[in-house]
Design a protein that fits this description.
With 249 residues, this protein is of the alpha/beta class. It has 11 helices and 5 strands. It folds into 2 domains: 108 residues, Methionine synthase domain (Methyltransferase, Methionine Synthase (B12-binding Domains), Chain A, domain 1, Orthogonal Bundle), CATH 1.10.1240; 129 residues, Rossmann fold.
C-alpha cells in the first residue's frame, strides 16, 4: 500500500540505503493517515502540530502505543537517518526532538498508568575526554520512545561513572558514545573495567559514534555496534533478548 501523505513520501526518499528504505517504508505504509501526518510534522519540527495531532488521535481512539510506534518513532527513524547522512544538522535534530517531546507529553502518562513493563534499563554516556552529546541524546530519545528506561550520565564519563550507574540502577545495557578518535580507546578501557570488577557478564555493552566501526567495536569487546539512533534501539532490543535467554538457561 503506498504512503498516502505526500510530504512523508518525499521525506522517505532521503533514505537511500535499500535495506533501511524497505524497513522504514514497510513500517509506515500500513499506518493510518493521521499517523503519517504526525510522522511528517515531527520530521519538519512542527511541535504545535504534533501536539494537536496527538490529542486528536487519542480522542479518535488510537492507543498510546499506536501513536508512539506508528507516528512518532516512524518520524524519528527518518530524522535519525538524515542526521547520520549529514542531510540535516544539530538545529534540525533539536527541533524534531522538541516536536517528539510535545507528543510524548500526552503519551507517557498513559503508558505509565497502564503499568507496562519497560523494555529494559539502559545507561547512556559519552566516554571520558569527550564532550559531544548530540548523537547520544538522539539515541536516548529514541530508546525512551521505544519503552526503555534510560539513565543519562552525560559527557566525559569515566569507567567508574558507568560502573556506578549500572550498580545504582541495576541496568541491563550500557551504551557508550564517542565522536573523537582520541577518546575511542576509552570505550575499551571502560569494558576492561567491567571485566576487572567481575561485572562483565551482568550487562551488555553497545557502542556508537561517528568514528566508531563494527571492527573497532569487535576489537574493544563490545556486544553490539549501532550506526545510528534507529540501530541503537534495534541493538538494545536484541541485547535484552540475549540477556533473558542467558538467565533462562
Amino acid at each position: 500500500m503506498p504512503i498516502t501523505h505526500e510530504g512523508l513520501a518525499r521525506e522517505l526518499e532521503y533514505v537511500t540505503n535499500p535495506g533501511e528504505h524497505k524497513h522504514i517504508s514497510e513500517a509506515i505504509e500500513p499506518t493510518a493517515p493521521i499517523m503519517q501526518e504526525m510522522a511528517y510534522e515531527l520530521i519538519v519540527g512542527n511541535n504545535t502540530e504534533v501536539d494537536r495531532i496527538t490529542q486528536q488521535a487519542l480522542q479518535d481512539g488510537f492507543s498510546a502505543n499506536q501513536l508512539l510506534d506508528d507516528g512518532l518513532l516512524n518520524g524519528m527513524a527518518i530524522v535519525g537517518v538524515k542526521f547520520r547522512d549529514n542531510l540535516i544538522f544539530v538545529p534540525e535534530v533539536l527541533v524534531a526532538a522538541r516536536a517528539m517531546k510535545a507528543g510524548m507529553a500526552h503519551i507517557e502518562p498513559i503508558l505509565s498508568a497502564s503499568g507496562a513493563e519497560p523494555a529494559g534499563i539502559v545507561i547512556m554516556g559519552t566516554v571520558k575526554g569527550d564532550l559531544h552529546d548530540i548523537g547520544k541524546n538522539l539515541c536516548i530519545m529514541m530508546l525512551r520512545g521505544a519503552g526503555f528506561i534510560v539513565h543519562d550520565i552525560g559527557v566525559d564519563s569515566s569507567p567508574e561513572d558507568f560502573i556506578d550507574a549500572v550498580e545504582e540502577h541495576e541496568a541491563h545495557v550500557v551504551g557508550m558514545s564517542a565522536l573523537l578518535t582520541t577518546t575511542m580507546p576509552n570505550m575499551g578501557r571502560t569494558i576492561a573495567t567491567f571485566e576487572d570488577m567481575g561485572m562483565r557478564d551482568e550487562v551488555r555493552i553497545m557502542v556508537g559514534g561517528a568514528p566508531v566501526t563494527q571492527d573497532f567495536a569487535d576489537e574493544m569487546g563490545a556486544d553490539a555496534y549501532g550506526d545510528n539512533a534507529v540501530e541503537a534501539v534495534d541493538k538494545a532490543k536484541e541485547l535484552i533478548v540475549l540477556l533473558e535467554e542467558l538467565k533462562s538457561g
